[in-house]
Amino acid sequence: MSVDGVYSNPDNEASDYSSNPTPATTPSTTPDFILALAKHGLKPSDLNAAHDLLVTIAKHAGSIMLSAEHEFLIAAATKNNTSDLVTQYDSRIEGMVQDRLRAAYPAFGFLGEETFKYGTKLADSPTFVCDPIDGTLNFSKGVPNCAISLALTLDKTPVIGVVYNPFRGDLYTAIKNQGAFLTKTTTGASYKLPLQTVPAPMPSLRSCLVAIEWGNQRKGPNWALRKDIHNKLLTDEEEGGAFCKSVRSNGSAALDFCYVAQGIIDVFWEGGVWVWDVAGGWAILEEAGGIVASANPGDWDPTLEGRLYFAVRHAKRDEQKAVVEELWRIMGDRKFEY
Fold this sequence. Notes:
Blueprint lengths: L1 E2 L2 E2 L23 H9 L4 H35 L4 H22 L4 E4 L14 E8 L1 H6 L5 E8 L2 E9 L4 E6 L4 E5 L5 E4 L15 E4 L7 H15 L11 E3 L4 H10 L4 E5 L3 H13 L3 E3 L14 E5 L4 H15 L7
Parallel strand pairs: 3-4, 10-11, 10-12
Antiparallel strand pairs: 1-2, 2-9, 4-5, 5-6, 6-7, 7-8, 8-9, 12-14, 13-14
Helix pairs in contact: 2-3, 6-7
């Protein structure tokens, strides 16, 4: 049952696309997508099954993350750093994810942060993508803004996204052409994204709350560009800036994408993160009416592996385009190089 856009879900499960009604504005499928699936021997119902398994796996990973909280508090009081402990949990969760997915889908590929080998490329064939803990610094410090991010890609494009922050009980999910949802696992309530069905106006960067991250590269041209754009976003227009509402550094690219999909962040500008950081959130954002352009000027069709992303929330298409081009003008002829 749905009331004012909220779906009742008493069993605390994610939105079940086979039982919960999908709003009429979201197509259940398209002929072109059916053909794309058929090329890989898949049907739309196969995506539903894969989605349900990814949700179950994400919840298992979330329970592992929650159980780690006490161990990290003890380690923080007795050790100089907790990086080894973070690595242990990263590896443990990814191992669990990989084992369960390979058992269910032995013919599908797997690309994970912890098992990634330099030079490996995302395949056209069905591939699961996993970031076991996105926002590891937050995780190690007890900051409740981290998540497991899972995706299924076809032809190097995400068609399922599942991002789960167990500390807030926020479960973001999407299947291509079936909409994006936020399920509050503490209550079971599920909300179709974006939360505002009629988007607020977004005429310029001045109206935007912008997410930006800092990364580990703190020198060189990329760092100089990141600092300068951050400064211009905050600076008054009289001094050559864009004077955006404010900026947020949340510490998780996966959740930044989801916050843009939800509509609580307007845009997210980022260069340097990896496919596993954004694949799940990308699927969720697009199903919520958002777009992904490149962080670098002039590229409206960035690749999932390109490491350059400018995520923009649901809005009128001309407003989305105008905000992207405004940021690109601030960058001028400068570009990230990765």
